[in-house]
Write a structure and sequence with these properties.
2 domains; binds zinc ion; eight-stranded parallel sheet; TIM Barrel; 13% strand; binds glutamine; globular; five-stranded parallel sheet; alpha/beta; 27 helices
Length: 754
């Protein structure tokens, strides 16, 4: 009997071995064979971890050298034409992922509401498909040899098409039958490998609001696929939110073996499980997206509740989603505060949780070590509930006193005063905040962290950088200056480090894309500001110039969305706490004479829930927390915000309601079409659509930028328009930034006619 399962496992390696192997391969230090060997080592380790934890359903093909959607593109033979002439398989694979001298890479975008990025399949009318099952067969046999009867993880046909983009305007679902045929061929091939093989189709697209056509495709797919072979046990796996009742009922009418539902991020699933007939239910009850220890007793209770609807034997205990989204292990976290560490559970620890929960729920014999683990879990959860590290009653009180989050005066009045005080010209020029992060700067910060240099030496270094930044901006002729952010390695970590309620890991890496990992900070407790966080550097920059220097903060929603956030408090409350800390910071900046303050909300949009029904609630608290943060700004203090993405169509009213005086956005890559929405809704506030793409080393010419400014003037009146690059310049080099900004200023002068 199958009692438990893991949706999928992380692949980057405990010490990020995959990252380093990939980088060595790309730089020619190791060959393709050695890369494959390293990959195999990692896969076997993953199998071993899961086997020794007592997991029944261990996956293969959850491993990828770069990305699982890219692997699916290869599996289906859907290689875009520009790569078709590359014979070498490894070269082809990485050319699609990263581009090469001749070809641009395929687009990459966020996997549902996570911070993981997948490669977007490119389909056109002329795309053809052919099966390429080599990787899957290899990894299956490898696991068999290792003594494991694995489940094979695949990205399902609906989700594949759902994530694909059309390069010629044709309907991607036009390929449905062709794609399904390949999946059928694949299942036939898998069926020839043995008896009773488990195949999991990941279909996270079914937790979004699917159209009736999309649902039709889903049912047709699993109707057909579940009839391919009696030797196969098919699983349809959903995660990240709930599956609606119709979809569940229809899936339940197919011959699949199991459905996986997420009970952590889609509690609503509880209401619909009655519709699952004669199937196994894989219950995702251990959070695969967050890093807190499960409350094992509460989880078993939840399972008991689910079991009211079906016999226990049909219930399989699992993670809510793949463990790709959490760090590997707590093993190397020797610097974490012991109390905090005791509340955490990363991928390896989660395996143990799934195993123990399954034992308790299914009534297996508990050994001494199991009882000890359960007791430790109870204690850890109690400590987390009561710890003074987490709960701050004073803060709760002062938050209650904030009921009015509006600015002192309406925008129309504020902007008049601001224009008088700040006296900036039409088409005012500025940048988004950061300037190039040089090797020298990184070395300075790292030596300081390792205590190799004194505090004084560090500060002198930072000041020197700020001086150069100000000088460069003055020479360039920009209107509103910035300090350049040299003291920040990361826009969230920098603030997190200065707030009570945050902790940081040493090795808590999570794959973001390919070889790139991020290390999200841990927001574990009530948030309070220890002391001013940015005032010293901003005021230093301001002291060096007659021009206005813009203060630079990260907004509450972005800080929250890029952290692992406590789950014992609603996100709306956590956001409010962050907002209050920023509110105090803005007050301090203002009192120190800073006249413009930018509050970046780069991750505002990615926090949107997948289900329409939940969007309103998110918008409400996200908006309120931004407003609370900036509500300490006087009418004559100008508030800017910056957002990194470009498609504003569905959220434009919310952005307007944030009521920042000026917003700068990323549009350079997407073109001006997307700006029309601002005109259509009659957007009130001032706006700086990025006029050049900072993601590329290319230096745009004066002509190009002049043309772009003129095009923008067709959409916006000149009094409302700011001119800036489309994001921070930290990833660029000075040699690129200096001429690009000079050209920008020249272009503005030409358009202004001076
Ligand atoms: N102020 C930040 C910077 O310039 C904004 C970064 C971002 O939007 N991602 O780096
Ligand atoms: Zn940006």
């Amino acid at each position: 009997m199958i009692k438990n399962s893991i949706t999928g496992f992380a692949r980057i390696g405990k010490q990020r071995e995959l990252k380093f192997a990939l980088e060595a391969f790309w730089s020619g230090k190791i060959g393709a064979d050695e890369l494959q060997n390293k990959a195999k080592e990692l896969r076997l380790k993953n199998l071993e971890y899961q086997k020794s934890a007592g997991i029944d359903l261990v996956s293969v093909n959850d491993f990828s050298l770069y990305d699982g959607v890219l692997d699916t593109i290869v599996l289906l033979g859907a290689v875009p034409p520009r790569f078709a002439d590359i014979d070498d398989k490894t070269k082809l694979y990485f050319a699609m992922a990263r581009g090469d001298e001749k070809r641009v890479a395929m687009e990459m975008t966020k996997w549902f509401n996570t911070n993981y990025h997948y490669i977007v399949p490119e389909l056109s009318k002329s795309t053809t498909f052919s099966l390429n099952a080599e990787k899957i067969i290899k990894e299956f046999k490898e696991a068999k040899e290792f003594g494991i009867n694995p489940k094979i993880n695949l990205i399902g046909p609906l989700t594949f098409l759902f994530l694909s983009k059309s390069t010629d305007g044709s309907d991607v679902y036009g390929h449905f039958d062709a794609v399904l045929k390949i999946y059928e061929q694949l299942l036939n091939k898998i069926a020839s490998l043995g008896e009773k093989i488990f195949v999991q189709f990941d279909e996270p697209s079914i937790v979004t609001d699917l159209s009736s056509e999309q649902k039709e495709y889903l049912f047709r797919a699993y109707d057909r696929l579940s009839l391919v072979s009696p030797k196969l046990n098919l699983i349809v796996a959903s995660y990240f939110d709930y599956v609606d009742k119709d979809t569940l009922t229809a899936l339940s009418n197919t011959k699949i073996w199991a459905i996986a539902l997420d009970f952590v991020h889609g509690r609503e699933n509880l209401d619909n499980i009655k519709s699952i007939k004669d199937k196994q239910l894989i219950a995702g009850v251990v959070d695969g997206r967050n890093i807190w220890k499960s409350d094992i007793n509460a989880t078993v209770k939840l399972l008991d509740k689910i079991a009211l609807n079906m016999p226990k034997e049909r219930l399989i205990v699992s993670t809510s989603c793949s463990l790709l989204h959490v760090p590997y292990s707590l093993d190397s976290e020797d610097k974490l505060d012991g109390e905090v560490k005791n509340w955490l559970s990363f991928a390896l620890e989660k395996l143990e949780e799934v195993s123990l929960i399954s034992k308790i729920f299914h009534g297996d014999v508990l050994f001494e070590k199991d009882t000890a683990a359960l007791n430790a879990n109870i204690k850890a959860n109690e400590s987390r509930k009561n710890s003074s590290k987490i709960h701050n009653n004073e803060l709760q009180k002062s938050l209650k006193s904030f009921s009015n989050t509006s600015r002192e005066a309406p925008f129309e009045e504020r902007i008049k005063v601001q224009k008088e005080v700040l006296n900036y010209p039409v088409l005012a020029t500025t940048t988004i905040g950061s300037f190039p992060q040089t090797d020298e700067l990184r070395a300075l910060r790292s030596s300081f962290k390792k205590a190799k240099i004194s505090h004084e030496e560090y500060e002198t270094g930072i000041k020197k950088y700020i001086e150069e930044c100000i000088k460069t901006q003055e020479e360039t002729g920009l209107d509103i200056l910035v300090h350049g952010e040299p003291e920040r390695n990361d826009m969230v970590e920098y603030f997190g480090e200065q707030l009570n309620g945050y902790a940081f890991t040493k090795e808590g890496w999570v794959q973001s894309y390919g070889s790139r990992c991020v290390k999200p900070p841990l927001l574990f407790g009530d948030i309070t500001r220890i002391k001013p966080m940015s005032v010293k550097w901003i005021t230093y920059a301001q002291s060096l110039t007659q021009k206005v220097v813009k203060g630079m903060l990260t907004g509450p929603v972005t800080i929250l969305n890029w952290s692992f956030v406590r789950d014992d408090l609603p996100k709306s409350d956590v956001a409010k706490q962050l907002a209050l800390a920023l509110n105090h910071e803005i007050e301090d900046l203002q009192n120190a004479g800073i006249k413009i303050i930018q509050v970046d909300e780069a991750a505002f949009k990615e926090g949107y829930p997948l289900r329409k029904s939940k969007k309103e609630a998110y918008e409400k608290w996200a908006l309120e927390s931004f407003k609370l943060a900036v509500s300490s700004a006087k009418a004559n203090t100008q508030i800017h915000t910056h957002m990194c993405y470009s498609n504003f169509n569905d959220i434009i009213k919310t952005i307007e309601a944030m009521d920042a005086d000026v917003i700068s956005i990323e549009t350079a890559r997407a073109g001006n079409k997307i700006l029309k929405i601002f005109k259509e809704v009659g957007y009130k506030q001032e706006i700086g659509p990025g006029i050049y793409d900072i993601h590329s080393p290319r230096i745009p010419s004066v002509d190009e930028m002049t043309a772009q400014i003129k095009a923008l003037l067709e959409i916006f009146p000149k009094e409302k328009l700011w001119i800036n690059p489309d994001c921070g310049l930290k990833t660029r080099k000075w040699e690129e930034v200096k001429p690009a900004l000079k050209n920008l200023v020249k272009a503005v002068k030409i358009v202004r006619g001076n």
